[in-house]
Each structure stands twice: as C-alpha cells, then as structure tokens.
Amino acid sequence: MDSLTLILRFVGVAQLAIVACLAVRDLRFSLVGYLVAVFCFGVASYLICPVIAVHGDLGLLDVLIYFGCFGNPVFFLLLSQSIFDDRFRLRPAHAALLALMEMLGFWRLAELIHGPWNWGLDTTTASLIAQQFAALGIIVWSLVAAYRGRGIDLVEPRRRFREVFVASCGSYMLVVVASEIQLNGRMATEGLALINVAVIVGFVLVASFWMLRFSDRVFAIAAPGRKRASEVRAPVDQNLLKSLEAFMKAGGFRQTGLTIGGLADHLQAKEQGLRRVINGELGFRNFNAFLNSYRIRAASGLLAANGPGRLPILTIAMDLGYGSIGPFNRAFKEATGKTPSEYRASFLVTQNSEATPQR
C-alpha cells in the first residue's frame, strides 16, 4: 500500500475522532450527537478496512472495524434522519436493517477468506451484488428523504444544509458505492485509492470546521454558555405576524394541501420572511407541526362533542385540511397520545358516567 495513502488514512481517522468528540460535546450528549459519532466510526472503519484486509488477522478489533465498515450506509441513514426529522426516534426496524447489512457484509467477507460456498451457484457474485445494491438503496433512500423534507423545514440554516448534504456527502457516497460495484470485487488501483482517501479527508476537514462554527444553527442545540440559534433572532415583521395569526384564527389552516409557499402568496409576503416568523417568533421548526397545532386543537373540540350533530371522524379530518384519514390519525396520536377514536371514546365514557343516576 502506498505510504502517502496510508498516512492520509490515519490522518482521516484522527480527524474523525475529533469531529465525533465535538459532536457529542456541542450537541449536549443528544441522540443526534451520538449518531454523528457513530457515523464517524463507520467512516473511520471504511478508511482502515483496506489496511486490515492486507495485514489483519480477524481478531476482535478487526471484526469491530468490519462491523463499522459494513454498517456505514445504515449509519448514514440514521444520521440524516436525526438531523432533518424532528420526530426521529430509533426503532426496531433500524436494528433489523443494520443486522441485514452486517449479515451481507460478513457473508461477503467469509467468501473472500474461505472461498465461495458450494451451493451450485456463483455465490461470490451474489454476495457482492446483494451487499452493494443494498447499500446503494439505503443511501438513495436517505438522500430522497432529506431532499423531500426541504419544503416544510422552517430552520433556514438546516434547509441550506440539506442541499449541501445531498449534493456533496450523499452524492459522493453514491459514487463510491457505484465504483465498488463496477470494480466487481477487485481492489482499486493506488491512484483511485489515493483520490478516494484524499476526498474523504477533505470532507472530514470541512466537517471539523463546520462542527466548530455552525452546528448549533442547524441542530438548534448549543453547548452550555452559548446561545442557541433560536435565541439570536433576526428582526421579525410584526405586521406579517399579525396577518398570519388572523388568517389562522379565521380557519385558514383548514385548506387542504396548504404549503408554506401558498400561505406566503396569500399573505402577500416573501416565503423566507414567513419562515422566519413561524420559526423565530412562534418557535416551530416544521411547517406541518405549525399547521397541526391549529388542526389538532380544533379536532379535539369536535371529537369531544356529543349529540345528534356529532361528526364522523373522517369528516372531521377532511374538514380540517387532511387529505385522508391516515395522516390525521398519526398527527392526532402524536400530539395527544391517543387515536381520534380513543379520544372520542374517552369523552363518551366520561359523559355516560356523569349521566348515570347515583343510587
């Protein structure tokens, strides 16, 4: 292995360790901070894997490095979701996805060490295709989800970061995976390996600077003693704020398919200024959460009503601007802890018990 490439690999690992420590510290030991550290571990493992492939003996440390290398696409997915989705939680499905990637990776590794399994099939090619195309699918899924959420994101620095994230980090990962598929299990040339490692080290260097300067503006989580981005507010258009509140109180939130752009057009305001008002003044990081704050409040009153004029749940959902019952059920349960049916039933039980004469 070329000495310059080897040096760059370990420089990258050292930088990743710094980024991981900064993330955990500056993001106040939050889930997203830990996931940044996990992703750094995965990238560091990717840098070291070619070294242990030549000089390793598959001891415990080597297995741990391979684990990080094989799990990298899943770590990338978890990191992107934790950054861009305010409702993100770790779920059993994430563990199952990681287990699948690890199984495919170690299957591939076992065949490289011990030869293909004798199943009457070319399992060497099958293991490679399964691993690389699964990785490709996960990365594409991550990038599509990150870009699709841009329209409802009210945190301006995070909206801009989505573009950088998709265009640079994610796109380069796609190039790397596509190149590995093209190589079909062959080792990359020294020139390609050097370019790959140099680009990764460059990314990590930029990430180090970004973590030091801009992380709290994207995550809205600052280190102790530092102001959060939401606390350093730009001047807000008070007339726009009043117009917005009047529109929503008049039932504007009931419009089906209402978007931040459509709302800005109705208020004859610039979209960026409206985002600043809803995020900076009202404290919402997501446009759907802003709409749901009005819709769920209205739904709660309608569901609590009793008598012959009581509306069906589907009618309530459609009248409040939801395109179907599914999004309404999810939003209502997230806000109240109960489905609309459970919420209505709890009021019926209370009203019936109050109406029952005491003996």
Automatic annotation (TrEMBL):
Is the keyword NADP in the record? no
- Mark the transmembrane ranges: 6-24, 31-53, 59-80, 92-109, 129-149, 161-179, 191-212
Give UniProt keywords alphabetically: DNA-binding, Membrane, Transcription, Transcription regulation, Transmembrane, Transmembrane helix
Gene3D superfamilies, from UniProt? Homeodomain-like
Taxonomic superkingdom = Bacteria
- Domain named HTH araC/xylS-type: which ranges? 242-346
Leader sequence segment: none
- InterPro entries, alphabetized: Homeodomain-like_sf, HTH_AraC, HTH_AraC-typ_CS, Tscrpt_reg_AraC-type_HTH
Instruction: Tell me if Transmembrane is a UniProt keyword of this record.
Output: yes
What PROSITE patterns does the record tag this protein with? HTH_ARAC_FAMILY_1, HTH_ARAC_FAMILY_2
What name does UniProt use for this protein? AraC family transcriptional regulator
Q: Which species does the entry assign this protein to?
A: Mesorhizobium qingshengii
